[in-house]
Amino acid sequence: MIIVNCQLISKNFGRVVALKNISLDIEKGEIFGLIGPDGAGKTTLFRILTSLILADSGHATVDGLDVVKDFRELRKRIGYMPGRFSLYQDLSVEENLNFYATVFNTTVEENYHLISDIYRQIEPFKQRRAGKLSGGMKQKLALSCALIHKPTVLFLDEPTTGVDPVSRKEFWEMLKKLKKEGITIVVSTPYMDEARLCDHIALIQHGQILSIASPEKITASFPEKLYQAYSENNYLLLLELRKNPGVKSAFMSGEFLHIVFKDGNVDGNIPNLTEIEPTIEDCFIYLMNRIADGAEILPGSAYN
Amino acid sequence: MLRYLIEKEFKQTFRNAFIPKLILVFPFLVLLVFPWAADQEIKNLNVIVIDRDHSTLSKRLSEKIRASTYFNLIASAETNDAGIAIIEDGKSDMLLDIQPGFEKNLMNRGEASVMISANAVDIMKGGLSSGYMNAIVRDFAAEIRAEQIPEAGKANIPHIQIIPQARFNSFLDYKTFMIPALIVILMTLLCGFLPALNIVSEKETGTIEQINVTPVSKFFFILGKLIPYWTIGLFVFTVTLCLAGLIYGLVPKSNLPTIYLSVLIYISTVSGLGLVISNYSSTLQQAMFVIFFFLIIFILISGLFTPIASMPQWAQTFTCFNPLRYFIEIMRMTFLKGSGFADIWRQLSALAVYSIMLNGLALVSYRKR
User: Fold this and answer.
1) Residues on chain A bordering chain B, Cβ-to-Cβ distance under 8 angstroms
2) Domain interval for residue B151
């Protein structure tokens, strides 16, 4: 069952194009990732889907409700955790949670089972003001507050940005548990490695969707052979590769260089060259380059 | 729902390190400090007398000045230039130059002149001080004249004595005049600008974003912001009223329902203005600047310090757009004159009209976003 549906959503801020003809469907009960760099339009899409701003054109439904017409009913059913910590810093942990429970016309006790795993970790500090919590604890509190009314769809805008690797892992564990409760989770992130933790992902860049599919499908249907190489001086090697007419693209990925050759043929004497499986990041860069070369974006398939 | 919003607002307000103290200190400052600081009566003026006559009469004039509470006779100089030099140093506010032959001329010809030079860098002080000095010299002349006229003839000389009577403020007490108006400034800050800053700070910290995705409607959200400040405003007003009675014996002459109704109408007007400002500001800095802009202009053309009647016609027209003007008039009329509804309905309806306009504008501009 489709729970979130966007059809040709566009939004401009003055002359800046934030979103251009975004169409996507999100299945009920899945974790859907919106993957893209800063400024790709992820937050804008979230704000449209949570009824905070209006799209210039197109329309969207969440849980069967139109985000413009039925916004009042919609707000009762969704949970939203903005990228920036947006709870009251001068209220205590407990007061924030109680406040958000009461404005949603519920009580903490009623849905405590949903948040107990998360909230239990910050409960020892429940008298502390929210502003005085550490980054990881703030995030747990924000998640608890977004969940307290048992939303059907949970929107998380860059929940792991600026969070340490251990807390990030923990956070994704929490999301998996929430998924088991039947909550649909829409999460945005600039981290490509988090993409494989989602059921479906949309790669988004400059307000346009490059591809929507499961992460496995996206990496499996990478249309080229991908190689990695490394040398003592990777930068020098990169410059050499870029001059090589047989190389289609070359870029750094961690301590390796990822290379795609023209026509799939290895060209030149390159140190430590091995064929590898592409990651989401490789796919993203590949798609990005294709757009830059003037390729059309056709929504619907992983590669088009 | 509204109850929780208001409860939250009060919790935050009283948890703030600064605002509760400000709310307490404000009425005390307004009553105990500002009326004295804003007093335009000038006392303790430093004056130099240049006595070039050295006669009995010139000494008597110096003594008269020394005896006055308005002046401190700080030095005497021999020449006008020496006196001016002292004024230039800023040690003296004015000088009185008694010409040689003062006594002789006065006795023989019945007239003599003295020169008053006042430092008019502060135009108010310069004007007032030479006025005071003028009055003292005139008084001195009258004394001399009375002494010169033989006792028997006195009754036959016709003269008019003017006895001024100041109505509504018999002693022309500046504090009585200022306190009702200062209360207006207090209410403007508490009920107009504080909630505006509060709303903008929610925008700036992003907490409004989280509230906006809850079922809390904008109307309730704003009402939840305003009601606490209205409550605080009314509380502070009541405290100020009691303090003014206790400290200065300044008890409003009109009945309390009239005064409180006016206060309520004014509160709705300024909070409307605050809301408009908060709708158009996205940062605290911007909101603060707009508030300063309005506050300064409103105070300058409100009749708080300078009477509206003495402004040029265009400025008088301008004051009609200033809600502060109406409320200051209402407060002074109700406190001092004991005016009832019949007397203040014009100002009240002006405030009501502005209230409807500003709140309407606030509603429209909020919807747009």
Assistant:
1) 50-52, 72, 75-76, 78-80, 82, 84-91, 95, 99-100, 102-105, 145
2) 45-156
